[in-house]
């Protein structure tokens, strides 16, 4: 079996990466190797599984801490390190024996010899993109998605055997899943323990495989899954659906389904976290004299009084009219940026009035123009 790559290397991260960096790297890699984007590509499928496994460890603070200290042995339940360092269950040097077993091919036997190659294994994790509207992201929604995946065979219930039969104890290893041979070395005689070649380390064999699934215990089906999407999600938010991946092997748990959210843009609003931004055009007379305008939000219309003398690009804040934060549930704000629109298609009479108006006003009536003119004088005097 190929040696596992470093999880930081899998996600192209440096050790000590932040939670946000880990999440961002996972999204990028998961999308790159997603099975839907690489149909029939076994290499991409393996890399997708590798990426999900790496994220499952590095996104969990406790697992990450153990991995940073002990590497793969710190998070592999079969490696003997458990949750508290060497020996997991308090048996002293069980983990050390496992390392020796790995280095010397299981010559020392015992619990640190050959572990069963096909013990309970978690099923494959899956990923699915869900596209939603801007409003659905703001207020939350429920989506029904369809995904083509492996499920437990409905004929044998996932056992892989014909109805009325069951797996039997392997006649070669007697159900232990291991075969042992004696080996003489310069250090003495040792027992070499290896997985049983007949049962593959399971300790059982299937004499009557289910005809529908061929003994695999699985079949491919289109499955409809309901996904509750909370208010406040944004592009690339990931919703984890535990146990909705593919079924495990040999009694192992099912994998997980990662729903990656894609949000359609809005025609008026731009989003910045929980805050919203809106560009609002007003006429020259509204800016000069002041006016009450009707401002749209995602849920209602509100009135706002613009003061006289409002300048272009002035930003007004409407508190609490943004989107509820996914983290703490508090609403963001709506920022309204005013743009002053110059009228077009003027009649000769209107042009005359505007010209007379402009000639009647001194530079002091235009604070920004006056400041600019004073600066020019300072620069070129």
Describe the protein:
It is a single chain. The protein has 381 residues and is α+β, with helices and mostly antiparallel strands. Helix content is 25%, strand content 26%. The protein is built from nine helices and 15 strands. The chain has a four-stranded mixed beta sheet with strand order 10-11-15-14. The longest helix has 17 residues, at 42-58.
Provide a brief overview of the structure.
The protein has 381 residues and is α+β, with helices and mostly antiparallel strands.
Descriptive tags:
three-stranded mixed β-sheet, 15 strands, 26% strand, elongated
How is this fold's topology laid out?
Layout (H helix, E strand, L loop, with lengths): L6 H4 L8 H14 L9 H17 L2 H10 L23 H10 L22 E7 L1 H6 L1 E12 L15 E2 L8 E8 L2 E8 L8 E2 L12 E12 L8 E4 L15 E7 L6 E3 L2 E9 H6 L1 E6 L4 E6 L8 E4 L15 E8 L6 H13 L6 H14 L1
Parallel strand pairs: 1-9, 11-15
Antiparallel strand pairs: 2-7, 3-6, 4-5, 8-9, 10-11, 12-13, 14-15
Helix pairs in contact: 2-3
């Amino acid at each position: 079996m190929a040696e596992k790559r470093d999880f930081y290397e899998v996600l192209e991260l440096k050790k000590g990466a932040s939670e946000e960096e880990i999440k961002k790297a996972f999204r990028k890699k998961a999308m790159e190797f997603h099975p839907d984007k690489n149909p029939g590509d076994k290499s991409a499928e393996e890399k997708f599984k590798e990426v999900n496994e790496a994220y499952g460890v590095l996104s969990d603070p406790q697992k990450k801490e153990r991995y940073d200290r002990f590497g793969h042995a710190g998070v592999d339940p079969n490696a003997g390190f458990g949750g508290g360092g060497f020996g997991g269950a308090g048996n002293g040097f069980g983990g050390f024996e496992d390392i020796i077993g790995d280095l010397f091919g299981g010559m020392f036997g015992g619990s640190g010899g050959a572990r069963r190659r096909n013990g309970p294994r978690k099923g494959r994790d899956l990923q699915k993109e869900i596209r939603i509207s801007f409003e659905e992201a703001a207020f939350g929604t429920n989506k029904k998605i369809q995904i083509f995946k492996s499920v437990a065979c409905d004929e044998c219930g996932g056992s892989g055997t014909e109805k009325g039969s069951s797996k039997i104890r392997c006649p070669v290893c007697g159900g232990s899943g291991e075969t042992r041979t004696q080996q003489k070395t310069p250090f003495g005689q040792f027992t070499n323990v290896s997985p049983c070649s007949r049962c593959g380390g399971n300790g059982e064999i299937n004499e009557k495989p289910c005809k529908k699934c061929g003994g695999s215990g699985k079949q491919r089906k289109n499955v409809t899954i309901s996904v509750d999407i909370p208010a406040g999600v944004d592009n690339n938010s990931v919703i984890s659906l535990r146990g909705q991946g593919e079924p495990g092997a040999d009694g192992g748990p099912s994998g997980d389904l990662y729903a990656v959210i894609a949000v359609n843009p809005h025609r008026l609003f731009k989003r910045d976290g929980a805050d919203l931004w809106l560009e609002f055009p007003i006429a020259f007379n509204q800016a000069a004299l002041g006016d009450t305008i009707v401002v749209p939000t995602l849920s209602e219309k509100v009135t706002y009084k613009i003061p006289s003398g409002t300048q272009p690009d002035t930003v007004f804040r409407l508190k609490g009219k943004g989107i509820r934060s996914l983290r703490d549930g508090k609403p963001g704000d709506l920022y309204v940026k005013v743009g002053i629109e110059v009228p077009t298609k003027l009649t000769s009479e209107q042009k005359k009035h505007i010209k007379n108006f402009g000639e009647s006003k001194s530079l002091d009536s235009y604070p920004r123009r006056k400041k600019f003119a004073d600066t020019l004088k300072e620069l070129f005097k």
